[in-house]
Amino acid sequence: MFVTCKILVMENNSSKLGLIKKAFYIWAVQYHFVIPKDILKMYVHKFRHESENISKYGQRFFDPSSEKDYKKWLTLQEYKKQDGLYTDITFVGRNVSNLNANGLAAVSMDTMNTSRIHTSYTCLVGEGIHLYEPFFAYLNECDCDAIYFDSDLYVNGERKSPKCKPDFSYHTLRGFNYIGNLVIVKTELLKQFDGKEVDIYRYLLELSDQKIEWKHISKIVYGEAEDTFNVYPLKSYIDEHHIPCKLMMHSDYAYLSYPVKEEPLVSIMIPTKDGVEDLKKCVDSIFDKSTYRNFEIIIIDNNSEKEEIFTYFKELQEKHDNVHVHALAIPFNFSIINNKAVEYSHGEYVVLINNDTEVITKDWLEKMLGYAQQENVGSVGVKLYYGDDSIQHGGIITGKGGGFAHRYYRKPHDEKGYMHTLDIPNDVACCTAACLMVSKKKYLEVGGMNEELTVQFNDVDLGLKLLDHGYFNVFVPDVELYHYESKSRGIDKDPKAVERFMSEVNYVKENYAKWLVHDPFYNDNFDKNYDYMLIVGTGSN
Question: Is the dihedral of CA 489, 492, 497, 502 positive or negative?
């Protein structure tokens, strides 16, 4: 949960630090964080480090959509030194004669035949692949089941449009082949495809259903001649496995829309305090827009005082037999409120939703439920807009701003996102609980929301616990809501709120260190503050 808070000022009032404080104040407002002194010091250090980078490289970050920027960024990259050619790999594709001519073990084949491969690993190579010299230095990274790399477009001898990919992302792969047309796989795993056409995307889809270890190396080490989407491997995979879904087509990608199974009861849980107009707008939008009708609304009233809200509660319950109001007279604790709401719920699936939201998409529950019902899905998040139609939430990036923050924050309504991430359902580290669906069973399996986290990071904690239990959190961008952002609760100004925030920060630092360093669904070559902008010296080796 993200809450607008004020920044705390350091005691030192020097002019330089004053300027830095002003800059961080702007940053804090943008990302909705309190910045206590020790955290501010960390950012000052970061500021100094990045200033050194600017003086060294001439610019802080590089736009991947700009060919000029990309070429400059490439000149600043460091790669491993090649320490001998890895010999336990056979290259397989339809046309690999050029590789064979360069002394590599290479076999051309249209149909998979592992009897012709005598190495532990096989590198599947698609048409039009151009290997850059650094590629060969990473061949000794073969220590798992399947390995893939970042890539770019290579057209007429020119390098363009980098593809900086996420780590293994099950549902993203069902939108398009983000992994690309070069992957190294244990030869043993390819035996199941003997006699079948050599089709890398189809193999990847099949392998993704199996319990194998994937490795992603975030270095751009090869180019592809074209950037075209072939839907036929995805369609044949769906047909062969009789997957109940609708294939939504686009020229550059597809995505799967899953039908709802058996119409389970969905419990929509809304915490509130006073703010009758906000709540009414939220509830009215649920009833007006929802085409899925098997739901109940559970309102948790947290210390309302105004008579008008109690009148509204009475009217709601008289009008709708599926609306239930429960009073919870405790100091505000978002985690406890939602955990109590789950206790009161009767649904098989629960929706956590803020009282200051408004549903836009009519079939929002069906689209969320279709994904939430998938065995490997933990939580399902949605796209949120501010009242001015700018994007508030497009998933969460871990480590952004030194903590956790919204992806595509304040981007225009029609933003498409890097590699279709605002067009297709894709895996993310976590999503905001301003609107989130999860099965009650999985919610309870991970212990629900952490009640030590009263305001911040409780939704992050839930998402990361689901990841640790082997589930994917899916962002579904074609479900849209307005989020008018914490109007009823206001801004934290009390010193106790600062103490609370610091305890939550310390909890994050102690428990989520690995996530702050690396978000598996956001490439290490990208800056953690400016979404999807290339930065020097952050990619893995």
Answer: positive
Token pair, residue 199, equals 């089709």
The vertex-219 CA angle with 217 and 222, nearest 5°, equals: 105
Do 89-251 and 266-535 agree at the fold level? Answer: yes
CATH annotation of 266-535: 3.90.550.10
Question: 3-class secondary structure for 7-35?
Answer: CCCCCCCCHHHHHHHHHHHHHHHHHCCCC
CB 256 within 8 A of CB 245: yes
How many other CB atoms are found less than 10 A from the CB of residue 363? 17
Eight-class DSSP state of 381: E
Residue 76: both structure tokens together: 């600043």
- Give burial (CB, 10 Å; 0-12/13-18/19+) of 270: buried
For residues 43 and 385, what is the distance between their CA atoms, to the nearest angstrom? 28
Average pLDDT, consecutive stretches of 10 residues, N- to C-terminus, the chain (541 residues): 34 54 60 54 59 57 93 90 79 81 83 96 94 89 94 94 97 96 97 97 98 96 88 96 94 93 97 97 98 98 96 97 97 96 98 98 98 98 97 95 90 95 97 98 98 92 97 98 68 65 79 91 93 76 39
Matching CATH number, 89-251, of 1.20.1560.10, 2.40.37.10, 3.40.47.10, 3.90.550.10: 3.90.550.10
Count of positions (residues) in the chain: 541
**Domain ranges within the chain, ordered by starting residue:** 89-251, 266-535
DSSP string, 266-317: EEEEEEE-S-HHHHHHHHHHHHHH-S---EEEEEEE-S---HHHHHHHHHHH
